[in-house]
Design brief:
With 78 residues, the chain is an alpha+beta fold. It is built from 1 helix and 4 strands, in the order ββββα. A 4-stranded antiparallel beta sheet has the order 1-2-3-4, with no helix packed on it.
Length: 78
């Protein structure tokens, strides 16, 4: 994937972080959500753990995540 632009990063645990980025491959735009680990040198390196989807599918992903958010909020409030 040629043009990678990190949009958001958050810590998963003490040695991993999740990076959400926009990428382009063969003229198509993608959203990449991937776990990164801290190497011995201190740099973050990508793992195979992740999801890459076309930006056209982003509304579907957001709808599903919103459903999960509502479901977990209901469990917390119960």
């Amino acid at each position: 994937m040629s043009d990678r632009r990190v949009i958001y990063t958050f810590e998963k645990n003490s040695v991993e972080q999740v990076q959400i980025s926009l990428t382009e491959f063969k003229g198509q735009d993608f959203v990449d959500i991937r776990a990164f680990y801290r190497s011995e040198s201190g740099d973050f390196k990508p793992t195979r753990k992740g999801l890459t989807i076309s930006v056209e599918l982003l509304p579907n992903l957001l709808e599903g995540l919103e459903m999960v958010r509502r479901e977990t909020l209901e469990e917390v409030e119960a």
